[in-house]
Amino acid sequence: MTKGVEDQIEPMGAHGKVRKASRSRDMLLTLENRVVNLEESMGDMRETLKVEVMQGMLSSTTDKLTVKDDALKAIVTTLKE
């Protein structure tokens, strides 16, 4: 009688492996999506940093040109006198 019951019961190992594989696939997809989001965010940050660096350089150049412009104006004023 026990032999008939054992034939009807499926081992849990097969179902457990399928569930583990499914969970592993889900976790892998989730991680891949997070990596893609992180890469996109890093790209956005790189662009932001590039813009900030360019703005800093432009501001510095503008300041230097303003100083030179003021110096030239002073020279021209002196020469006119």
Describe the structure.
Residues 1-23 are annotated as: Disordered. The protein has 81 residues and is mainly alpha-helical. It has one domain. The protein has two helices and no strands.
TL;DR?
With 81 residues, the protein is mostly helical. 94% of the residues lie in helices and 0% in strands.
Radius of gyration: 36 Å
Total E-strand runs: 0
Task: Work out the helix count.
Answer: 2
Terminal Cα span:
124 Å
Order of helices and strands: HH
Uncertain stretches:
none
The number of domains is 1
Please give the oligomerization state of what you see: single chain
Helix content: over 70%
What descriptors fit this protein?
81 residues; mainly alpha; 0% strand; rod-shaped
SSE layout and pairings?
Elements: H1 2-8, H2 12-80
